[in-house]
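Homework help board

Subject: predicted structure for assignment chain

Our instructor gave us this sequence and asked us to write out the predicted structure in token form, then describe one feature. I got the tokens but I'm not sure how to describe them. Can anyone check?
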Amino acid sequence: MTPLQLITAAGLLAFAAVSAPGGIIDEIRFGVAASEQAHHFAGEQSRLLTGGLGEPARRLLAPAGGGWEGGSMDFTLKVDPELPNYVTVRFWGSDATRNVLAMDCDGKQVGYRHLGDVDLLDIGGELAAFPGRFIYVTTPLPVGMTREKTTVDLQIRSTGPMWAYGKDFEQFQKNMTEPSRGIYRAYTHTDTCFIPPPDETQGTAVAAPPVRTAPGPEVMEQLKNRVNGTANGLLKSAAPLNEMQMEFLARAYFVTWTPANRNPKVVAQVVKGMDALCAAWRKHPDLMHDDPSTPNPGWFEFGPAGHAVSLLGDELSPLLGAQISLGGNLISRRTAWADLLVAGRDWHRHHRRLYTNQTMINDTTIYECNRGLEVIDPAQALTEDAVRRYFYESVALEPWRDSDGHPTWQVGTNYWQLTAKHLTKELGYVGYYGEVLDWVTSIYNATRSAPGLPGDQKIKAQLEKIAAARAVFRYPGVDEDGFRAMLIEAVVGWRDTDHYPGNVAYAERATWDASPLYAAAATLNPAAIGYVQQMFADGQFFISLKRQMEQAGSLRVTAGLLDVPAEYARLTAQPPVAARLPMTPGQPDFVFSDEEDGVVAVKHGDEILYASLYWRAHHAVNYLARVHYTTPTVDRIAVVRESAEFTPSGLTYTRPDNIGGATPGGVHYPGLRHSAEAGEQLPIVQPPPGVSIRPGEESVYAGKADFYTLRYGDYLIGMNLSKGKTFVLPTPAGISSAKELVSGKTVVLEAPVKVGPQATVVLWLKP
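My token output:
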């Protein structure tokens, strides 16, 4: 075995990455008696229906007596005894469900229930993902289960929805209370890209989805009423405020249309709240990393308190010399508050988070605690340069230095939280959690010396670059009511589960903490202004505010509304900008690739292709890619095989027998069901010098190859993730030339197609 060679997954007897497309091996049409009988169908817990476009289908029923497991149906399909096989299932894109569909092969579950590299058939998404047309979901069958076989017994099972953050089975797995979505057909095939039979009925896209016209500006008045109601309640509160409430009032102190504006009661409430927080912390020291009033234990603690203090510094200064009673002892307020903020700052310095969005939150806590100390006790505050470096690391202006004092993440000394093309790293491309524009805007705003003054210009420039990179990952669709919208691409995201279709987003998504105007208003970047104007033109702004406010009772959401009127006024005052999101119909074709995250986005005519070639390879190279390929008439979601070249470490990772998740931990399901992938051994990549990898532990290096080759239909992608090697892209026999979509040039395939370091080639093979 040479140090660098092509490693092919066990059982791959042909180079599937560049092989010619193959046809369908077998097909069952659910609800068609002759087809079901020919494939040994059994499914008493299912119901026949006439579904989309009048096509027959079956739904699996919820359990009659309650519970999380619903109906199932069994059938047999032919497979190729030598080549790797796939199963593709056809669903109607107008169906909406939160239920889950899993598939068994010869009695073992194919794929994992939560964030595995092989996903389940259907994880649900509540909304209609592709109205009026069909969706095709493709899953690889384990090679060892089809080798030397001509048929396999398959079962599709239904369960209730899952809550990804559940800490035990009862929290994670919810009951099934309604039937599954319609299941139309299932096919077996050997080609990575499933091509529906030519006689199969397909829907047609709406040429111009209608534009939303309501709600309108009246939502802004509702927003102010909500904010002011919360502010009045907190100003009158007899109980001490928690740190999130203090921060809200301190921010509202500077908002002219709120009852908190320049109101002395704000200062009094913050003083009372800070005194109470100090007393509670001295009684319960774990509060500095486990404050139940904050959104996530270990991420925010004492940062909101520090922010409140820093905002009200001038007003609070005369009150800091007073003596307060803590545990029966008198202590100066200045000392008590300073001790609390030092503890919060330093705990978070020693417990930083690896994933980009999480380190941004954690590092904001460090910074805000220190800003509070600058007001209370400057002698205990870190210098601005010393504390701002945490921000520089989290937004990739400097390499990330891990936790202070005792590094724990094993990423070496040259790890950056963003790729060179300004996507986040968690570990590859992330859809929903990669939308960090709200956090980076908050980081930029934190560096303002006072509200309204400029912040750190290097951070602002980085924010604009992140916004430009994220713009590629919005694709055209419709919102939940059928109106025109741009959606976040989450199908190929590492940390995304039920975000299909993706959230509506233009310049940025709406979140708990901020509006979709937040970054654009902070930067006034011309492209971002254009994207906001596109959102205004599509009528999607006011509905986003309405959706935010539907989260009744959430102080976090209410706080995120404080700046919206000013942001809206600032952006509506801007002149028209021509920029529109790159995937918008009518925009030029392009290819975007990020070789650090291993993701590619292609706009080619009316086709859009997103692919993660480095796909959920937490522990070892898995030879799998995730694809979302959408055309006006068909939407395809697939996990498919690819080829990978890398330097092996000599270590291997063995997949565990765990259907709940692809890692040894996670939620385990009751009963005797086993994983179809269990026992597969995968090679681990040689890590950089000074970094060690233990088999079974998540690593940013263990599963990232140097070069990937993916053939998907008429697209052939070669991606070079290395920084110093050149690879040759294998090309299929019988095709003499192809269009290279990155450059737009025609390439002669008789000569080697070389792919240099940190580069991607996308060939269009269709004659």
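Reply (TA_rk): Your tokens look well-formed. For the description, you could write something like this. Residues 240-394 form one domain. That's the kind of observation they're looking for.
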